[in-house]
## 1
Amino acid sequence: MQLKNKFDAGEFAILAEIEPPKGVDVSPMIANAKRVKGMVDAFIIPEMSNAVMRMSSLGGAMILQAEGLETIMQVNCRDRNRIALQADLLAANGCGVNNVMAVTGEDPGIGDHHKARSVYDLDLLELLQVVGTLQNGKDMAGIELAGAPKFLVGSTVNLGAKGRSPEIEVNEMKKKIEAGAEFFITPPLFDLSVIDPFLKRINTEKIKIIPTVLLLKSLGMARYIAQNLDHVYIPDSLIERLRKTPDKVGECVKISCEMIHTLKNKGFSGVLVSTIGWEHKLPDILEKI
Amino acid sequence: MIVADKKPIEEIIDEIKEHERILILGCNECVTVCEAGGKKEVGVLASALRMYFLNEGKEVKVDEKTLERQCDHEYLEEIRSMIDQYDAVVSLACGVGVQFTAEKYHSMPVYPGVNTCFMVVTEERGLWTERCQGCGECILARTGAICPVSRCAKRVLNGPCGGSTDGKCEINKEIDCAWQLIVDRLKALDRLDDYEKISPLKDWSTDRAGGPRKVIREDVQQ
């Protein structure tokens, strides 16, 4: 319950993303998480992000919980119907996972199983409400549960995406709060000015916004994101900074550290550090916070 | 064809009660055959609505029009000269027609008057049964022209499942087991060897994965 306590105390929470393996060798995942034990309040375990098949979030979360690490399990609408989603939520809480994050899930067309049939039995708002229903001691059929789960519930907010109106984003976030979301993870941020129009419309002291700080791995990655990902803005100045430096990786780590400090000083509720495959770099970033 | 079912009139009234000039727009294709949204049903709905508004003491204009189709530009153009007389349209076409009407007349509220169901055959008058879900990759050649995607409750491609009893589905004893039908049909065709083969994994990307689908025929476009 470290994360909830941090939120309740109004302290800056540190989250880190740990991808479960594509396979059953969980030792690197455990080693990477343990390396930053004590520096991270909770680990977000993605549920097959980008529709790439790998060990489930539930499995990954249970493995880390068994190591004494707090996790946030992701549930997505893409792969499971309402029966399976409820079952997984009960399983997770029964196994000690107290934090859950609901996401829509990307279309299988972009993943590595593009012939898959997606489910989307529930949408994100419905899924958030279902978490609430379970917490109230009943399932979606209205049948009483033998013990209700208790979760800290999170979701996503698409801040800084190109062409998204801040009004619509605020509206969507309010609906998610109404449906039960207590904290929100943003897409990777490299320049806070892009979310200013949004921040002006909400009270960040009341709403827990957790920006994602993505560790860039190279100049090429930065350029690719800048050119191809509509929901992530990387300013030219940052790309130029990476171009000029001889130690690209060291500079990328430095950029992440600076961003985390900025977010902390700005009064955000916390940060999610995403290293997508470079979890071994987490200590380099977190030790400097 | 596509089958649709009439919406309860209370639901339609609830959607349109604030409007004063309403066009009930029928379609002369599938919804006429299934007697949910053709000229006759347009007349019945319009009369019922007039009666409702009269009883409510409201002066509401309710007009009727039935187009050849609502899924083609050329027929929807027929109402362009008259559309400004109305402040709402109730389309009795399938969901395709409702949407295409709304796309064509962007500032006009368009409400559905039927619930669009699925692709069917007319087994007998008043009885339509599902035959196709438009999965985009037809496997009927392998299954004796009986579709397990639309006719098996579990969409099992290597059936039957354990719930098949005496040729009936576990969902409902009145529903034929699609795989029993397939086996019977393959037997009649002397092709039971085909049944022995394991069906390859189905590519659902032609179904709904990847979002709304389209068919582009350049040979027809030219």
## 2
Amino acid sequence: MTRKGKRLALIVGALAALAVATGLVLSALRDNIVFFYSPSELAQKHVAPGMRLRIGGLVKEGSLARDGRTVAFVVTDRTGELNVSYTGLLPDLFREGQGVVVDGALTNDATFRADSVLAKHDERYMPRDVAEALKKQGVWQGEKGAQK
Amino acid sequence: MIVETGHYALILALALALAQSVVPFAGARLRDASLMSVAAPVAVAQFLFVALAYGALTYAHVVSDFSLVNVIENSHSLKPLVYKVSGVWGNHEGSMLLWVLVLSLSGALIALFSRAMPDLLRADALSVQGLLGAAFLSFILFTSNPFARVANPPWEGRDLNPILQDPGLAIHPPLLYLGYVGFSVVFSFAAAALISGRIDAAWARVVRPWTLLAWICLTLGIAMGSYWAYYTLGWGGFWFWDPVENASLMPWLAGTALLHCAAVMEKREALKVWTIFLAILAFSLSLLGTFLVRSGVLTSVHSFASDPERGVFILIILVFFIGGALALFALRAGALPTGGLFAPISREGALVLNNLLLTAACATVVIGTLYPLALEALTGAKISVGAPFFNTVLTPLALPLIALMPVGQMLAWKRGDLLGAMQRLRAAFALGVVAIAAFGLLYGAPSLSVLCAGLAVYLLIGGVSDIAQRAARGASHASVFLRLRGLPLSAWGTSAAHAGLGLTLLGLAATGWGVESIVAMRPGTNYEVGPYQIAIETVAARQGPNYTETYAAMAVREGGATIAHIEPAKRFYQARRTARTEAGIATLGLGQVYAALGEPHDDGTIDARLYYKPLVALIWIGALIMALGGACSLADRRLRLGVARRAPIAAAARQATQAAE
């Protein structure tokens, strides 16, 4: 093969690899993206049950109910509310009145079945999504203890 | 006083960095040897001043000087000494200072260990290194000053985030930074080569040890970080495809590509332009990682307080260096001489394929990490791209790459014999198939795990058989031993690194066969986890230096006999009023039993997650062996002495063997 031919082969090979990678990325992005909503946003979106979602907000005070290892609680952003149920161990920082992010899907009766629960209570480590949802609702408690 | 000295030293270091970036560069353009010779001593001095500043901050943390904002926010007088020292880099300001410390250390090392390289290259490289130092020193001084004081010092500090109070923190960030910033040296040399327009095999020989060193540290840093996540986060996972983890994986993938590509350039003078591009890419991705973690665009345990001003500053640095380097590349790359020819089926050809797959994998990680950020900025929609995406995309890229690794290792330079290489891999193929059958029978589904385990064994045996076959050409035992000793260390390095990846892959494959159960445990009762039983013996509370904990002493039993004890605990740190789960882990063979505590119930039971993870230790053992392979290559004499001096000896040896045959 000539030098030019080889270079051409190399470029074609690179483009082929690139095309395969692009195809993989696009198809994977279509199937595996998870949207993040606050409870009030979710209420407006009319999402079909079974679609994977991520919801962020506060755990409503007094809403936590345990039944064996299954817990039910309400996630709120002070405008919308969402009933969540979860089976498993809650994280260390999970507490009523604190920020929480849940992953899962809506069931047919409009409750949210979570398969993972993330909680962060120190606002320095609070998921930014939650902080923003709270800021948007005007219930952000500010940078307690003056960061910086 | 000591604190002010540190602050002042940092300002002096900035002045030195500016001098280091301007004077040698001018000297190189004017061909003035005395101006160029300024670079080396200034680089060393810059390092000493940054080290002084770093020492001063460490001192303030150790003596709990609560007049410093940084100490108040991240320390506590009761914190154990080791976390006072490692807590220096457990916060934004301190970790940036560590970043700059490593950066200036790399500059000093170039200055001290590069006497053999051309003056022009050295001056230009040190000047680029100085410019990097100046940018990050100003970032620290203008937006993230760790030496800021408060008027009314409080009596007590707010303590370090409990998750960071762990021996893992003492090792993980410094290693990772040595890796990230180690690529800055390669970047500086690439920029220097583009500035002078001169590049040859000697350049590759200068750069390869630096690439190796950075790659070794990055490999260890990533492995350490994943083990840390595994045992501190308490849910048994070791990789979460968190953007911050991806930030370290991106330069690793680019660095691995660079490592292989630099080998082609060093041996065959081919792929020069591509090597330069990868050198720029590897450090650019390190910078991107720093931006993602330090700017506050992302949230995780890694990103500390976020501040938009800092984000913009780092973004400017990022655009300046990456944009500048790429512009230089676009202008100059066409003028670089092209290198040697090779047939498609050859070691070079295999390494090109390796590079294509690695960079494609790297690109998908970049897209998966940046896409949610871009989408949010453009449309406001918030999405998360997690494990399902990365698993779907990376598996089809990684599996062919791994399948080709042993083949490439067996091919000769310039023109290879594919059939011969396949024949030499007979044993590896056969054992791979045997492994698929054995693991299939032993564990069964999922089939991806079985396939990966087979591939892992094939890779492991393929890596080892190259060394074995080269040695087996000797006639007697004595000559086999001599041949083993005579093999270049870099060949040992390649085999070890490939075999290490095989081990890691086997460990990853085995995650599919793990057992997880969440149970409410009643003390004294046995609970099945895989082949073992776990029972709580006692539950009690105890007092640590700055926390109280509830722990459960558990016995791990096999067939009635107790074989290990673990003590998972829940700790409560008073200063931040934060809880943290401490997992109990027993390593049994290569597998592990892992327990994490949940909430206690009124009826005397306590929730716990119990895991049995077969072969899981191989994930990290494999990474250690990969790093060891890198260290072997690094120790290779050729890298230090240069091929030129060795070539006649090698040629003479080759003639001697040919004559003997």
